[in-house]
């Protein structure tokens, strides 16, 4: 078919069967719709993830939110407005100490939370003669194999930033102990002494002392001559980039470099470092996820972390490296210690997976890489103004170890019914009451991109692209209308009119 490279071509597999959940370990509780993508444009994938889809290799899946045991909500961070929390700063300081002094932290760390990916990826390739050839392992086996894969591994932190659960527990404790709920009434006094200055916050006092010290320093250096010095720049909040720069001091014991290499199509640097990357992945899977030595095979590594359906694109408004799938390699003193798998899309950087050498587990590389990827998103936005979000995959409130993604603020969750973005602060109270929630508070709001005419959905039949209405006329008595309608409702009208649904 002429010009096929500009099309997205998928095969839809439905989502009737339940598989093992990688979060709660329910043997049949994981339900999702799945598609195998032979090729995909970056704009089509951007639109799909904005409707709750995610990719694992070339397999694209969408959890059935009201049915699956652990609902997975798409989450995005406003990269331009992000400010690192106390726990994030702690991670960066830990890296700085290691780079400068050369010593790994000795304190034990908690096991990293795991996020699985759906894996009922039955591979069906169209043949030149219009027939189809199935080349997939048994679906249950594939599901068991991939249920242990995290999309993004990271440390769960205990930052005090805002856990509604913690607030509720404190409230419950207060209600269960009436004696703690009310303090004794204060004794009568003479009231406020108006001759004494008002009490001031310790934070304001510290800020004033810093300003006074800075003024004295500038006066001593002759910077000011009888004129009050302006507030020191150090009083302003440090940016994420400043914290990252501080974590990479010069003239230190170690050198850390982050290299971006295109994985599809694989560039020369990707090919040259493939074996080293695979060895790190194998060690990671065996140490972190307890895989047997023969399970992290090279073919598995290629299939889930190297293969991608995304076409490399470089339109005029794209950043310098273009759009598509990449690996961010973390090189320490000339060797790879971690790899972040990412997609660069028209409006976001989408995190797919992170793996690292177990020797460096104490460095919290999951958190560190996420901070570097947010900073990378901000860098790309300077070249491509629309590219301003960082997608962290799925937020799973019902799995406590997966709530860490909510600490990258400000962030939004995707409403599973209307597909609008809602600030996470408004979503959390609902998720405390129910695993599944509709975040859009307007009861009359619906899916703005809902399918209105399935006949306009595009299909690929005998190497020819055509609307479904034309296909159904050619295939009189075809019984796939229900399946095509379900598929179209999941991808939305606009995607259904662009994406080619393969029909044997």
Can you put this structure into words, describing what you see?
It contains 15 helices and 17 strands. Residues 110-195 and 223-229 have low confidence and may be disordered. The longest helix has 19 residues, at 202-220. By secondary structure, the chain is α+β, with helices and mostly antiparallel strands. Strands 8-9-10-11-12-5-13-14 form an eight-stranded mixed sheet, with helices on both faces. A seven-stranded mixed sheet has the order 3-4-2-1-17-15-16. A hairpin with a 5-residue loop joins strand 6 (124-126) and strand 7 (132-134).
Short description:
The chain has 504 residues and is of the alpha+beta class. 31% of the residues lie in helices and 19% in strands.
Helix content class: 25-40%
In terms of quaternary structure, the protein is single chain
Strand order of the largest sheet: 8-9-10-11-12-5-13-14
Tell me how many strands there are.
Answer: 17
Using only CA atoms, what is the Rg?
26 Å
How does the overall form come out from the CA principal axes? globular
* pLDDT averaged over residues: 83
The assigned structural class equals alpha+beta
Euclidean distance between termini CA atoms: 15 Å
